[in-house]
C-alpha cells in the first residue's frame, strides 16, 4: 500500500471490481502466545462484559483488484490492538468496511462514543465495522457487510440504501486495521436518518452531524475526522 497518504494512514485506490478472496486458515499459535491472547481477552471482558468473540476477517495480501485473507477469532485481533508488539507473530490485518452516506442535503458523520474501545470522540462516516462471518456463509460480500452495519449503527434497512463500488483501502497505524471505503446514497432526509438512528440503532455514535454539500471544505478543516472518512469526503 504505497499510493497515497492521509494523515499518515497509507491509502490504496481500489478498482470498482475489487473483491475479497477467502484463503485457507493459518496454523494455530504456540501456547505462550495463545495464553497471552486469553489473558488480554479476559481483562477486556471484565471491563466490557458484552464483548463477543466472533469470527472476523484478516487480510494477507492487498492489491487494487483483490484482497486475500482468512477468518480468525476477534479475541486475537483485540489482543494485537491492545498489544501491537504481537504483530510480528500474529500478522493480523483485520478488514473493515466504512461507508460515506449521502442524503439529498449532504453527507452524514457520526462521533464515536467516548466509551468506545477504539477511537472514541473522533468523527467517522457511518456505517463502519469489522468484516464478520454472518450466519453460515464462508465468502465475503462487501455490500452485504456494509448494509448489515448500516442497520446496526443507523437503523437503516437495505431498501433505503444504494451501495456504490469500493473506492479505497486505508491502513490504521499501530493496529493494522484495513478500512475498505465505499459510498452510499439514500433518498431519506438527514432528519429521517437521524430518526431511524434514534429509534433502532446501537450506540456506536453519540452524535450524528450533517455535512452540507456546500460546507464540505469547512468540515475537512476539522482535525478530529478519521482519515478514511476524510479521504472519502475529499473524493465525494
Lay out the secondary structure.
Blueprint: E1 4-6, E2 9-13, E3 19-22, H1 31-47, E4 55-62, E5 66-73, H2 74-82, H3 87-90, E6 95-102, E7 106-112, E8 123-124, E9 128-130, H4 142-154, E10 162-163, E11 168-171, E12 178-185, H5 190-200, E13 205-212, H6 216-220, H7 227-235
What does this protein structure show overall?
The chain is α+β, with helices and mostly antiparallel strands. The longest helix is centred in the N-terminal third of the chain and has 17 residues, at 31-47. It has helices at residues 31-47, 74-82, 87-90, 142-154, 190-200, 216-220, 227-235; strands at residues 4-6, 9-13, 19-22, 55-62, 66-73, 95-102, 106-112, 123-124, 128-130, 162-163, 168-171, 178-185, 205-212. Strands 1, 2, 6, 9, 10, 11 and 12 form a 7-stranded mixed β-sheet that branches. α1 crosses α2 (74-82) and α4 (142-154) crosses α5 (190-200).
